[in-house]
């Protein structure tokens, strides 16, 4: 049996014991307030949880706050009006360095890519030199920073050796479709949509991270919550994580489930939905939290070198409490 599968079985048994131990105390549905970007992929997972009654099975009442942007989620979490949101360990480590005891549990290893038209003469990353490159998310985007760091090994400084434009992910994708740029660096779901329309990948961000010494796919996005809240609600949090894992497993194995949530994904055709499905599945974390944390430390140093104080704040290293170890053996 695969290592991750054995750990999954152990996790399920531990959570079952937690549930039995609480049965005599009559634990009713315990509320978790979740801040969700309305157009984000976490909404897909929550929809599956609700449709299959996984929240009720776990004894949870999920109060979902749909927000317009990740920044709104960060504000809600810091203000105490949300318990959990999705963000990256870079932001969590920075906030910890500034005094906020936030923490992170892996959610997805799906990352972006460099995309070009299928007919493009750009075949390798070195070919980006002298081209126009549209970058989603701005100058501190993780995909963009890791791309810069990778090419610096070849003596290429994309900020000066290429024409760079920044913009919101939908706008950058539209520029690519309209032929207004030679290549684009975008988030995984926008890359999947471009792929469905005939564009191709020059390189993925996950391919880049192995060049820096990462031992496997790195989950840069995770469930973020206050450490004190997590410690006080450890069993509730464990049941929530197990419910999300069950939802992920449904999405990993059931093609019909993707048909059911197609409207949520915004996919305009079957090819786009299939691309979302396939790349979402690739991004389901299968590694231990310890292994994730080790690779995050490696990448943090790379990102801190490129992004500097504006990205990581006063912390030159990943804060020791950034990753939350929820269940023994996780």
CATH superfamily of the largest domain: Periplasmic binding protein-like II
Proportion of residues in helical segments? 40-55%
What is the number of helical segments per DSSP (H or I, 4+ residues)?
17
Radius of gyration: 20 Å
Return the average pLDDT rounded to an integer: 91
- CATH architecture descriptor of the largest domain: 3-Layer(aba) Sandwich
Distance between the termini: 16 Å
Classify the beta-strand content into a percent band. Answer: 15-25%
Label the structural class.
Answer: alpha/beta
Secondary-structure element pattern, one letter each: HEHHEHEHEEEHHEHEHEHEHHHHHHH
CATH topology of the largest domain: D-Maltodextrin-Binding Protein, domain 2
Stretches with pLDDT under 50, minimum 5 residues: 1-10, 12-26
Query: Which CATH top level class of the largest domain fits?
Result: Alpha Beta
Integer count of domains: 2
Architecture overview:
By secondary structure, the protein is an alpha/beta fold. It has two domains: 3-109 and 217-277 and 284-312, D-Maltodextrin-Binding Protein, domain 2, CATH 3.40.190.10; 113-210, Periplasmic binding protein-like II (D-Maltodextrin-Binding Protein, domain 2, 3-Layer(aba) Sandwich), CATH 3.40.190. It has 17 helices and ten strands. The protein is globular.
Give me the secondary-structure topology:
Layout: H1 3-23, E1 30-37, H2 42-51, H3 54-57, E2 60-67, H4 70-79, E3 85-88, H5 89-97, E4 102-108, E5 113-116, E6 132-136, H6 142-152, H7 158-161, E7 163-167, H8 169-178, E8 183-186, H9 188-196, E9 200-204, H10 205-210, E10 221-226, H11 227-232, H12 234-253, H13 255-260, H14 262-265, H15 270-282, H16 289-307, H17 309-312
Parallel strand pairs: 1-2, 6-7, 6-8
Antiparallel strand pairs: 3-10, 4-10, 5-8, 5-9
